[in-house]
Amino acid sequence: MEWQQIEYFIAVAKSQHMTNAAKQLSVTQPALSRSIATLEKEVGVELFERRGRNLALNRYGQLFLERAQNALTEIEKAKQEIANQINPWSGMLSLCFPHIVGAELFPTMLGAFRERYADIRFELNQCSNEELAVRIHNNDSDFGITTWESVNDAFHWQLIGKSELYLAVPLHHPWADKKSIRLEELGGQAYVGLKPSCALSYTVEALLAGAGVEPDTLYRADELDMVAGLVSAGFGVSLLPKTLGVRNYPMAWVHVNDPASELTVGVVWKKNRQLTPVGEVFLDFIRERYGAGAAE
Question: HTH lysR-type domain location, by residue (predicted)?
Fold first, then answer.
């Protein structure tokens, strides 16, 4: 059943005349008659009765008309709601982000955006990194905030900020007083890592692999707070950014002698997807604020 058939049916039901309805719809009478006949065949019953030159709805037609008009009204409402949500100046954006990037860079970016576009609303979804990729791929979210290392070829990625990664160690650890350390020294060290659900895990794994280091990973946690708690309790060391919540744990922070030892956070969106007008506004803001180049 096609939507056009529904519109044709409603027009004929209101005019009660095939020729007049055809003129109103700017279609030929034979084409309109075929459309109504096809609709009746699909419904399984005739919807009109002939009364001279006029057509009158029978009881089945009356039933179908009521539902058809309700459906048309709901479709028009949905179209208006969609138009409101994609309006470039007052629409809605759906963003998703893993726990690791929700602390500092993300709120700062959103705050700057809202200062300029106060009427644009956000639907925010905190999720795992795997869920982020699925949401964007399925068009459930317009954009995501994650690390470059966790992005594959199906997405675009635009840098919005970097945070230095330090080696967090227990206060009683022999390295607690060190000013700096090389990644190579982590070989065989008791280490507290992150599960792949956390975006930072991809960054850390790439850093360690690049340095040819394989620490003795005793635990893997879902969130930074748990990692920081385990480190402060003496279970091992870990590469972490000095985010607000993590800094509150009693740990020592050792500078890492590697320029690549940093968390890179950016905006990710799906390739080959037409962005909504409000999505284009957001992306233009990101490129203006953080640079025009997007990683492919």
Answer: 1-58
Q: How far apart are CA 144 and CA 184, in angstroms?
A: 33
Is the Cα torsion angle 273, 274, 279, 281 positive or negative in sign?
positive
Q: How many domains does the chain have?
A: 2
Per residue, what are the HEC states of the chain?
Answer: CCHHHHHHHHHHHHHCCHHHHHHHHCCCHHHHHHHHHHHHHHHCCCCEEEECCEEEECHHHHHHHHHHHHHHHHHHHHHHHHHHHHCCCCCEEEEEECHHHCCCHHHHHHHHHHHHCCCCEEEEEECCHHHHHHHHHCCCCCEEEEEHHHCCCCEEEEEEEEEEEEEEEECCCCCCCCCEECHHHHCCCEEEEECCCCCHHHHHHHHHHHCCCCCEEEEEECCHHHHHHHHHCCCCEEEEECCCCHHHCCEEEEEECCCCCEEEEEEEEECCCCCCHHHHHHHHHHHHHHCCCCEC
Whether residue 121 is found in the same domain as residue 93: yes
Quick one: average pLDDT of 51-74? 92
Q: Of 37, 68, 86, at which residue does a domain stop?
A: 86
User: Per residue in 237-257, pLDDT tens?
Assistant: 999 999 877 888 999 999 999
Predicted TM-score of the model (pTM): 0.75
Is the pLDDT at 102 greater than 80? The verdict is no
Confidence of residue 52 (pLDDT cuts 50, 70, 90): confident
Domain of residue 20, CATH code? 1.10.10.10
Mean pLDDT of the 207-218 span: 95
For residues 28 and 164, give the distance between their C-alpha atoms in angstroms, rounded to a whole number.
Answer: 70
- Which of 29, 58, 86 represents a domain boundary (last residue)? 86
Provide the pLDDT for residue 172.
96
Q: Tell me the average pLDDT of the chain.
A: 91
